[in-house]
Amino acid sequence: MAQPLDPVALLAHQLKTPLSTISALAQGLIRRAERLSAKEVRDRAERIWRASLRLNELIEMVLSYTRSSAGGILLNPTEFNPEALIRRVCREQTSHEPSRPVTVDIQTLPRTVVGDPILLEQALVIVLSNAMKYSSAERPITVEARSAPEGISIQVKDEGIGISARDLPFLMQPFFRGHNTKNYPGTGLGLSLAWHILRLHGGGIEIDSREGHGTTVTLMIPEKNITGAVDVL
Ligand SMILES: Nc1ncnc2c1ncn2[C@@H]1O[C@H](COP(=O)(O)OP(=O)(O)OP(=O)(O)O)[C@@H](O)[C@H]1O
Ligand SMILES: [Mg+2]
């Protein structure tokens, strides 16, 4: 029987992919810079820059996860406006995909809630960037937020590759990646980090998906929960 893939080897591979791109493009520039037009040089520099952003993203994800599982995440609750946070995250994350139809539908949210806005923003970025990564840039994404009896729910819906029923139970495990993600970069740490963050707030994450059709991820944040000054995971 085939050996299961070592997650650290997979992660190293993911980190090496953008690094190889950077290395190959930079070597090409060094060897051929005099023969390339200004536009060709700019194109290559831009591809190097994009690969370095991707590398940075991967490293940030690993660092955040390592912090959360080693020393614990510190929760710093303050009052914040949930609508402003959701709108800002959606605007910032989707700005580089101008052809993507994005609907932000916000209903009856309280003006302020108590929670850690930096961590909750990180959780929403993780879920929204998954929706963008696993669906093509022309497919719509809908972000819906509302007050429910259990608290605030933020739902991110995409029409992307979806998740197979056999992968669904494992998504919150660190390093786990769906069988249909081979052509997409990633560490498999994002959702486990988001799950830690929501659990710290007394909430949770629900995922509903059909392979080949799309995915809906719901972040649940109870409204009454957080009163302490600092909590440690
Ligand atoms: N919107 C989505 N559509 C399809 N699959 C998804 C979606 N969100 C999560 N998944 C599945 O859940 C897995 C775990 O997601 P997670 O965000 O933890 O890791 P990742 O996206 O693979 O990598 P990274 O840690 O870099 O974000 C993914 O590999 C993918 O199989
Ligand atoms: Mg991800």
Write the CATH architecture name of the largest domain.
2-Layer Sandwich
CATH superfamily of the largest domain: Histidine kinase-like ATPase, C-terminal domain
Small-molecule components bound: adenosine-5'-triphosphate, magnesium ion
N-end to C-end Cα span: 38 Å
Helix/strand order: HHEEHEEHEEHEEE
Low confidence ranges: 226-233
Mean pLDDT: 89
CATH class of the largest domain: Alpha Beta
Strand portion: 15-25%
Specify the biggest β-sheet. Answer: 5 strands, mixed
The total beta strand count reads 9
**What helical percentage do the residues reach?**
40-55%
Radius of gyration from CA coordinates: 20 Å
**Topology-level CATH name of the largest domain:** Heat Shock Protein 90
In the sheet with the most strands, the strands line up as: 3-5-6-8-7
**Main structural class:** alpha+beta
Word description of this protein:
The chain has 2 domains: 7-70, Signal transduction histidine kinase, dimerisation/phosphotransfer (DHp) domain (Helix Hairpins, Orthogonal Bundle); 74-232, Histidine kinase-like ATPase, C-terminal domain (Heat Shock Protein 90), CATH 3.30.565.10. 43% of the residues lie in helices and 20% in strands. The protein is built from 5 helices and 9 strands; from the N terminus they run H-H-E-E-H-E-E-H-E-E-H-E-E-E. The protein has helices at residues 7-32, 38-70, 82-94, 117-133, 190-200; strands spanning 74-75, 78-80, 102-107, 113-115, 141-148, 151-158, 204-210, 214-221, 231-232. Helix 2 crosses helix 5, helix 3 (82-94) runs parallel beside helix 4 and helix 4 (117-133) packs antiparallel against helix 5 (190-200). 27% of the residues are buried. Mean pLDDT is 89; it is low at 226-233. The structure holds adenosine-5'-triphosphate and magnesium ion. Adenosine-5'-triphosphate (ATP) binds next to helix 4 and helix 5.
